[in-house]
Write a structure and sequence with these properties.
This protein is an alpha/beta fold. Helices cover 32% and strands 17% of the residues. 51% of the residues are buried.
C-alpha cells in the first residue's frame, strides 16, 4: 500500500456567510482558519448550491443535488417530486475511498435522509462511513440536540452532561477518530468529514465566548458592511470597482433601530458560534500535528450556503417541535422561549432565535441575497485548501471559478482512486465536476458553464458572465468582472448572450432532473389538501 497517499479532511460550516471569518474580511476571530489560509490557498469564486441538504449531497457525491434525489431538502415528495434521500445512482466520497483502502470517519450533521429517527440505507454508516458521530436532522439545540447518534445507535442521553455543547462534541469526536486511527491502523490513510452545525440557528453559545464580542458590533450593520468591504478590497478578495450592494429593503438604517443592544447581542452570539467552531478546528489541526500528519493531509474548509435570513417565529417553532427537531424544554425542564423577540436575550439553552436579515446582509458582504437564492449572497462561499506536502503557495488567492461537484473529482484525482460505473449492483452517474489540482498551481482550469437551481432560483456562470433568476421573476444578466455585486442588469443590452445561456440552462436542467418549481408547488398544494381531508 502506498503510504504517501494523502489523508483528506473536509470541514463544513453551516449557514456561514462569505465574509464572516477574518481571512475573508470579517470581524469574527478565526485564528485557526486564518492560519490555514495563510499557509494554503483561498478561492474567491467557489460556489455551493444555496441550501444545506443539496450542498451536502453535491459535496459528497460530485453530482448536482437533483441527480442524487435531494433537490430541495429531505422531505419525501416522490414519485412526482424529489425523494429526499441519497439514491443508489450516486456514490459518496466515503464509499469510494473505503473501496480504495481508506478508513472513513464522520463527525457532525448528516441531513441527507428522510428517515431521521429510524436507521435507513441513507444514513452515514450505510453510505461509506465506518464510524459516525453526530445528528441526522438538520438543526436543533446546541445544548440538547435530537437524533444524536453514534454509528447507528441513538445517544441523545449523552447531551444530559452539564457541559455538553454540540460544536465542542463534534470537534472532540473528530479528534478521537484521528487519535484512534493512528493507534490502530497507522498504515492506512483516512478520510474525515467534519460537518458543524455552527453557526446555523438557534443562537446558542458559551457565555464566555459571547463575552469576547461584547460591543464589537455596536456600530451597527451599515458601518460594519462598509468596513468589511474595505478590508476585502485590501485583501484583493473584492475588486475596488465593485459597489457595495444596498442595504436590504426590509432593514432599517442602524440609527433608526430602537433595540440596538438586543440586535448587537444577536450578532455577538452568532460570532461566538463561529469562534467555538474555529477553536475546535484548531484542536483538530493539533491532533494531526501530534500524529505527524499535517503535512500530507488535504484540508478543505467551506460553508454550505450563504448567511441565513430566516426568522424564527411561532409558526416555524410549532413546525420544528411537531417534526421532532426542536424541544419545548431544556435539560432541566425549563420552557424554551421561541422567537426573535427583543425581550428574550439570545444565547442560552432556554432560547431559540436567529440573527435575522440585517445581520445576514452583513455576513454576505458585499453581495445581494441569502441562503435559498442563487445570487452571490446565496452561493458564494469561503473555500480554503491547506496541503503543505503538495501546495507550496502560502496565503495566495485563486480567482478561478469552481463549485461543489469539483470536490469529489479532486479527491479521486489526488488519492488515485477509481470512480466506478457501477457500485453494489447499481449504475452510478458519471462525475459532473473536474479536478481542482491545476488551480492549486494557479493554472487555468476552463470550467465551461456552472449551473445552479434551488426552489426555482437559478443561475448559470460562464466566464465573466452570470445569468441569474430570483423565482418567479425574470432572468437577469451580469458581468462578474465589472459588477460581481449584481447591481447592473445587462440582459437588455446582451439579449443573444442571455438567450444562449438560458438554452444551456434548460438543457442542463432536463439532463439533471431539475423539477420545475411550478410542479413542486402543485405537489405541496396537493399534500396540504390531503392533510386537510384527513
Amino acid at each position: 500500500m502506498d503510504l504517501k497517499r494523502p489523508n483528506v479532511v473536509i470541514i463544513l460550516a453551516d449557514d456561514m456567510g462569505y465574509s464572516d471569518i477574518g481571512c475573508y474580511g470579517g470581524e469574527i476571530d478565526s485564528p485557526n482558519l486564518d492560519k490555514l489560509a495563510k499557509n494554503g490557498i483561498r478561492f474567491t469564486q467557489f460556489y455551493n448550491t444555496a441550501r444545506c441538504s443539496p450542498s451536502r449531497a453535491s459535496l459528497l457525491t460530485g453530482l448536482h443535488p437533483h441527480q442524487t434525489g435531494i433537490g430541495i431538502l429531505v422531505d419525501d415528495d416522490s414519485p412526482e417530486g424529489y425523494a429526499g434521500d441519497l439514491n443508489k445512482n450516486c456514490i459518496t466520497i466515503a464509499e469510494i475511498l473505503k473501496e480504495n483502502g481508506y478508513r472513513t470517519y464522520m463527525s457532525g450533521k448528516w441531513h441527507m435522509s428522510t428517515s431521521t429517527f429510524t436507521v435507513s440505507d441513507s444514513w452515514p454508516n450505510q453510505r461509506g462511513f465506518e464510524h459516525f458521530y453526530g445528528t441526522i436532522i438538520g438543526a436543533g439545540s446546541y445544548f440538547y440536540p435530537r437524533t444524536l447518534t453514534r454509528d447507528n445507535i441513538n445517544i441523545d442521553d449523552e447531551a444530559n452532561e452539564p457541559d455538553f455543547y454540540y460544536t465542542d462534541a463534534i470537534s472532540a469526536n473528530a479528534i478521537k477518530y484521528i487519535n484512534q486511527h493512528y493507534k490502530n491502523t497507522p498504515e492506512q490513510p483516512f478520510f474525515l468529514y467534519v460537518a458543524y452545525t455552527a453557526p446555523h440557528w438557534p443562537l446558542h453559545a458559551h457565555e464566555k465566548d459571547i463575552a469576547k464580542y461584547k460591543r464589537r458590533f455596536d456600530e451597527g450593520w451599515d458601518k460594519l458592511r462598509q468596513e468589511r468591504l474595505k478590508r476585502m478590497v485590501k485583501m484583493n478578495i473584492i475588486d475596488k470597482e465593485w459597489e457595495l450592494s444596498t442595504r436590504d429593503p426590509n432593514v432599517s438604517p442602524w440609527e433608526q433601530v430602537k433595540n440596538k443592544g438586543w440586535e448587537a447581542r444577536r450578532m455577538e452570539v452568532y460570532a461566538a458560534q463561529i469562534d467555538s467552531m474555529d477553536q475546535g478546528i484548531g484542536k483538530i489541526i493539533s491532533a494531526l500535528e501530534k500524529n505527524g500528519q499535517l503535512q500530507n493531509t488535504l484540508i478543505i474548509f467551506l460553508s454550505d450556503n450563504g448567511g441565513c435570513e430566516e426568522p424564527i417565529g411561532a409558526r416555524m417553532a410549532k413546525l420544528m417541535v411537531s417534526e421532532g427537531s426542536a424541544r419545548e424544554y431544556t435539560r432541566s425542564g425549563e420552557n424554551v422561549k421561541f422567537g426573535n423577540k427583543y425581550r428574550i436575550i439570545p444565547g442560552a439553552e432556554n432560547t431559540y432565535q436567529s440573527y435575522g436579515v440585517a445581520w445576514a446582509n452583513v455576513s454576505n458582504t458585499p453581495f445581494r441575497k441569502y441562503k435559498h437564492w442563487t445570487h452571490e449572497g446565496g452561493i458564494a462561499t469561503p473555500f480554503i485548501i491547506h496541503w503543505p506536502e503538495k501546495i507550496k503557495a502560502k496565503g495566495e488567492l485563486r480567482n478561478q471559478q469552481a463549485q461543489l461537484t469539483d470536490v469529489m473529482a479532486t479527491i479521486v484525482d489526488i488519492t488515485g482512486s477509481q470512480y466506478p460505473e457501477e457500485y453494489k449492483g447499481n449504475k452510478i452517474l458519471p462525475l459532473e465536476g473536474t479536478s481542482l489540482v491545476p488551480i492549486f498551481d494557479n493554472r487555468d482550469n476552463d470550467k465551461g458553464m456552472l449551473f445552479f437551481e434551488h426552489e426555482g432560483n437559478a443561475a448559470v456562470r460562464e466566464g465573466k458572465w452570470k445569468l441569474v433568476k430570483d423565482y418567479p421573476n425574470e432572468w437577469e444578466l451580469y458581468s462578474m468582472e465589472d459588477d460581481r455585486t449584481e447591481l447592473n442588469n445587462l440582459i437588455d443590452k446582451f439579449p443573444e448572450r442571455a438567450k444562449n445561456m438560458i438554452n444551456a440552462y434548460e438543457e442542463w436542467a432536463k439532463r439533471c432532473g431539475v423539477i420545475p418549481r411550478e410542479k413542486i408547488l402543485e405537489i405541496y398544494k396537493q399534500k396540504y389538501r390531503n392533510a386537510q381531508i384527513k
